[in-house]
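input
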Amino acid sequence: MLEILGLDAIAEAVYEALVDNPPLTVEEMSSTTTLDRTRVQDALNTLEANGLVMCTEGGSTVFTATPPDVALEVLLLEQQERIKRTRLFMEQLAARYRRAAAGRSPADMIEVISGRHAVAQRVEQILRSTSTEVRFIDKHPYVIAPETLAPVEAEMLRRGVPYRGLYDPVGLSTRDIQGEIEPAIAQGEQARMLAEAPIKLILADRRLALLPLRSDPHAVESVLVVHPSALLEALDALFETLWRTALPLPPVGGKNADEANGLPQEDARLVALLTAGLPDRIIARQLGLSYRTFQRRIGGLLERLGVRTRFQAGLQASFRGLVPPPDEHPDQKPTPEDLP
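output
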């Protein structure tokens, strides 16, 4: 827990022993912590250098913990100041990098990352460094298992970094929508589905893009990292064009469907998958139903909505607020180009 302040596990154990007990000698601390005297003494030297213990000499030398709310607060403030200076230096380096990049050849605007491990590492690095927005087009194949990146997305959403995702039907058909996609939507991801995704893509902060080097349907071994350039602007525009025409994957569990719309949650989920455009057999598999049972569920849903066709059911779903219209994106701030 105190590693962020530069203390290892042994120093932390010795400090906790002093916090929980009256003044102790080295021998007593060794007995309390089950550490040998040398390691205890080394830990005490570290703690004393950081102002976390006080030494009192008398008949025998004893050590007392400095009050944590005083000593640790000082260390935290010092650490925050170091982080502040490091962040400032990082911003200066970034500015220098951008100035240098402006004079580079066009070939320097694109990096090639090869090897599955290197690709996975770079993807996570770029995602974690994003501060404005992450946008992605989800399409097979996956160089990183989606469940591996789920904690990263959850962390970024908690930080307030928006996520917008476009899903390809083929890739979505292999995913556990209820177990993987819906939790992300519930946490704040805005998700939509394309009839067919043209490329696999990640956009970070309108400053970087990642896409496969080759359109291999079986594996991603190399990716392109695109820096600010006309190509990045084109990829940005492509995403926004696709976003405006994609069908929403609404947060099924976001409302009490029984009270708000007169539909039980299982029917609300069925409506969400239908309006997303997934094929019937894939929807049936996602819901854990046989195809025959799925067809009966469709018939029952049409009857409850008071309609005869799926098209009418889609209209009713929109009227009842079960699905948002495709161009709805309340959290997206207008860009300067959008303003009159």
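quick obs: The domain at 253-319 is CATH 1.10.10.10 (Arc Repressor Mutant, subunit A).
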